[in-house]
Amino acid sequence: MYARLVVFNLGNGKRRTAEELTKQLDSETRKLRGFRGSVYFFDDRASEYRALNYWDTKSHAEDANNVMLPKLEKDLGKMSEKKPIVKLFEVFDPADNEGLIFSHINI
Fold first, then answer.
1. DSSP structural state of residue 57
2. pLDDT along the chain (107 residues), means of 10
3. CATH number of residue 13's parent domain
4. Domain that holds residue 71
5. Domain count, the chain
6. What is the SS3 assignment for 86?
């Protein structure tokens, strides 16, 4: 499994904008081949927002990035001078065969 981490900045007081943008892009991301899940992190004090998407394969993560990054850059171009940062990671899950969801649940 692979993860795609996207970090972007908005100006002060842009929480609602970040939420709307995240909802819009999330609905599109979920339709892409190999999608496994997403987690979003908001740091309003720093005006920094992060999206972490999980993908079946590295190819799926790269394909998603090729589709979604231009859309994000277009939307951010109207609001921020900073370009988003994207990183791909191989995911190691020590839960071994229990699946991604298992590793995120405290039983």
1. S
2. 95 91 95 96 95 96 97 88 93 69 54
3. 3.30.70.100
4. 2-103
5. 1
6. strand
Q: In angstroms, rounded to a whole number, what is the distance separating the alpha carbons of residues 79 and 56?
A: 32
Q: Measuring CA to CA, how many Å separate 3 from each of 14, 16, 35, 55, 80? A: 26, 25, 10, 6, 25
Q: Round to whole Å and give the CA distance between 35 and 64.
A: 9
Residue 78: CB partners within 8 Å, gap ≥ 6? Answer: none
Distances in whole angstroms, Cα of residue 107 to Cα of each of 39, 63, 76, 98, 101: 20, 35, 39, 13, 12
pLDDT, the chain, mean: 89
Run of H or E residues at 39: strand 35-43
Would you state the structure tokens that stand for residue 49, as one six-digit string?
């927002």
